């Protein structure tokens, strides 16, 4: 969120059945625009970070 809030182009990859799916929606991540499946996000990304919550 910090990078996104500071103007960086950030996308996330997330499993749809993830328990944090609704949290991502509430935080403003838009499916198909800034939020993708993990595989699709990895293909689109330039810098990839693996973060576990």
Describe this structure in words.
The protein has about 55 residues and is mainly alpha-helical. The chain is built from three helices and two strands. The protein has a two-stranded parallel sheet. The chain is globular. The relative contact order is 0.22. The mean pLDDT is about 90.
A few lines on this structure:
The protein has helices at residues 2-5, 21-26, 38-44; strands at 12-13, 35-36.
Number of helices: 3
Major beta sheet, strand line-up = 1-2
Averaged pLDDT: 88
Main sheet overview: 2 strands, parallel
Q: What's the helical proportion of residues?
A: 25-40%
SSE class? mainly alpha
Shape designation: globular
> What is the N-to-C succession of helices and strands?
HEHEH
Number of strands: 2
Radius of gyration based on Cα positions: 11 Å
How many domains, as an integer?
1
Strand content: 5-15%
Tell me the layout of helices and strands.
Layout: H1 2-5, E1 12-13, H2 21-26, E2 35-36, H3 38-44
Features:
two-stranded parallel sheet; mainly alpha; globular; 8% strand; 2 strands; 53 residues; 3 helices
